[in-house]
Amino acid sequence: MALRNEPTARQMRLATELRRLRDAAGVTGREAASSLGVSAAQISQIEKALAGVSEKRLRAMAANYACTDTELIDALVTMATDRTHGWWEDYQERLPTPYLDLAELEYHASRRWDVDFLHIPGLLQTEDYARALFSYVNSEFPQHEVDLRVEHRMKRRVIIERSDPIPYEAVIHEAALRIRVSDRSATRAQFARIQALSEADHVTVRVIPFDLDGFAGAGSAMVYAGGPVPKLDTVVRDGPHGTVFIDAEAQLVRFRTLFRRLESVSLDPERSRDFIHMLAKEL
Question: Which residues does the UniProt record annotate as the domain HTH cro/C1-type (predicted)?
Fold first, then answer.
């Protein structure tokens, strides 16, 4: 079987978890290979996501590593054997890889949390808002490149709009609501979309107002995607050098705690809807 040229973030996560299981068991790559009757190179390729792994081999690896977490093992098997052709794959070689990786991560997520301080979270954006944002940030792009990014962002909304949506929670700072990335009409439409979505049982939107005392958490923007088990959760953050996918267990615990802390200081959902309504009337 040919080796992969560019593994996806999901494939890399599977590989990382298998390597973590081996390291936790104190088993060397050579020992793991010997127990499976394969070469050390094959174990290395699996742990670098350059090669896939069958259910039978994955379960044998978990047994050799003395892993008894059946929920985790079953989740890893699903990751290894899933052959879903996602809509995002149609954008291969048309958009940067992180766009595809985020869409795939969301598709398989069990829940989604967003925290944003400067912009409306992507899943809540209207087409006009997204277009204004992409046009400004990528002012050198030809129109068709902007259109492609807007189209991709709109398709990502399916996870909270489909018949079996995932639970979604967003914490938005007042600054993100007040920054007018487009004109007043587009801003009103954006507020109306947030309010309409927030009425759904699976969507919770909270606002952090400017007048909150003692708030110094403006650097805490994040996308938190829940996995089938907590160990497979992922945090996505945009930095100066690109998009970063965070999956170390200690970091995940930190970000879970941070999200709940931000949630606790924000307005409750009903007051948040009233707050957004007030801002809309000011336009």
Answer: 18-72
Contact 207, 172 (CB under 8 A): yes
**Angle of the 127-137 helix axis to the 143-156 helix axis, nearest 10:** 140
The CA-atom distances, in angstroms, between 189 and each of 126, 131, 199, 201 are 8, 14, 16, 21
Bridge pairing between strands 222-226 and 203-208: unpaired
CB atoms within 10 A of CB 54: 11
- Packing angle between helix 9-25 and helix 40-47, nearest 10 degrees? 130
Tokens 């439409």 sit on residue:
189
Q: Summarize the confidence of residues 136-148 as an average pLDDT.
A: 93
Q: Determine if the pTM surpasses 0.85.
A: yes
C-alpha angle with apex 203: 282 to 159, nearest 5 degrees? 115
Whose CA is closest to 280, among 195, 181, 203? 195
203-208 β-sheet, strand order: 203-208, 168-173, 111-116, 222-226, 234-239, 242-246
Are the CB atoms for 199 and 143 separated by under 8 Å? no
139 or 151: which leads in pLDDT:
151
